[in-house]
Design goal:
By secondary structure, the protein is α+β, with helices and mostly antiparallel strands. A seven-stranded antiparallel sheet has the order 1-2-3-7-6-5-4, sandwiched between helices. A hairpin with a 3-residue loop joins β5 and β6. The longest helix is centred in the first third of the chain and has 24 residues. The N and C termini lie far apart (52 Å).
Length: 175
Amino acid sequence: MNKKVIFGIVALAIVVLTSSIWFVQYREKLPTPPTELIYPEDWEKFVEDGPFPDKDVKKVITLKKTIHAEGAIFEVAIELKIISTKFTDLKDIKEELRNELNRSGLPILNESTILVNNREGYDLLAGTSDWKCRQVVFLANGMAYMFKYSSQEIFYLTYEEVFDNFINSSVVNEI
């Protein structure tokens, strides 16, 4: 074999090995690509980056739909609030949300675990016969990602799929 060919193969092997070691060592530090959340076209979208009165809140994305029905105006709202948190376990978040609901007097209708993009979250539905509020919370990298959906009972089921699509389109640790 020609010395130039052998030298080329060795050089290529060194480059591949060095690149592999660098990638394994630094992949956690690489920036994550922006996440493409799915926003429904006929909803208003508001993105707030602060500053907020609560310094732990880092970003709020709100989707709103105004509905004119039966001579009245109704509003359906979906919100994603990204909050710096001390919590590292979903059990702590569950307890905090339960306490908030107990203070408000709003009864809990359903609680469950949810799995989105291989990340476990807490799913809580509260409400009355006239109004529903669903909150889904994920923890990642010292942040709580709190999705909230609230509407009058008559619209809740109609737009719950929009809420689910909004949650499912997010990759929590890349937002």
